[in-house]
Input
Amino acid sequence: MSEKIDVLIKNGNVIDPDDKKISKRTIAIRDGQIVDYNPGEVYTIKDEIDAEGYYVSPGWVDSHVHVFKDGTEPGFDADLNLIPMGITSAIDGGSSGVGNWPSFKRNVVDDCYLNLFYSVNVSTSGQITESYPENVDPRYFDEDGIRRIFKEDPIHARGLKLRYGAEVVEPFGTSVLDKTIELAEKLQCSITVHVTNAASPIENIVNKLRPGDIVCHIYQGKQNSILDENGKVNKAVFCARKRGVYFDSADARINHCYRVIYPAIEQGFYPDIISTDITKNGLFNNMLWGLPVVLSKWLNLGLSLIDVITACTFNPAKIHKLPWGIGTLKSGANGNVTIFSVENRPFHLKNRMEEEFDGKKMIMPQVTVINGNIRFKSLYFPF
Output
């Protein structure tokens, strides 16, 4: 009796970000996992995909989204919107805190086709609205409640989230970051720190962070950016990277600035992770649209295709310690795969800082496979 294969993807240009190479080969998935494929053997194949002329990569990870639908104002339906974007895994960036985590876990995390993970907001209420900031007063950090979350859901809970913008921490002083680090030390977890409109100079922030911590919105253009008064990337930022601190673009509509991006790129400071920080209000508009457009922007900014795909697959999976072989196409990993094309397609973006960007090449998702199941296939893709 021949062995079965549930999904066979042949003839594609396969990107292996962990090996930094592109090669023509076949990807086979059985019982939700990637398996070795021997072309000399006979298989019973359920779904065969001819990816000739397309790229095949590990399933894309958007490592900064806000998807607490019906529980927060910015939240949106994760499956409905992200799966057609080629996304197989996502990390919610602190939408929920201890107070509303049970609802978030039950109604969102446990109810997704996506592999959905999350950071726990240090604010008990989480990020429930864009109308006013969450309360990050360290006096109300719920250490026992967060510890309980990590104990009950160690797979999906990926660390703490702190928005360290001046408008958020102003009532409580800049010691909020110190207190968050103290809390993370007790809980033995990482922190994702939002630095748009940072409450302190960037060197004061990154010098305190520990290996494994993540700085998001690293190309923000409000106060205390990564550039010094001479337009140079602050030396402390490069030193932090050497120590093992990671940097996420988390572009959003207002958390990136081309006046910062261009000189940073010229000086060799690229993002470790490319993500969107997408909310309901950012979906499908020309400030952000979603991950395919953000990836395309960085491709047009000069990153190689392998580097762009690495920054939304292997890197976020490694940095956030995601399970199940997410971020790779190695045998034994869960079958999370994105098939996409790169096309000559002009596009125009305009962010909330009134900066404009024109791109010429677009990364276009065509097929999304999540844990061995085809969850999306573009009508443009051959049947």
Summary: The radius of gyration is 20 Å.
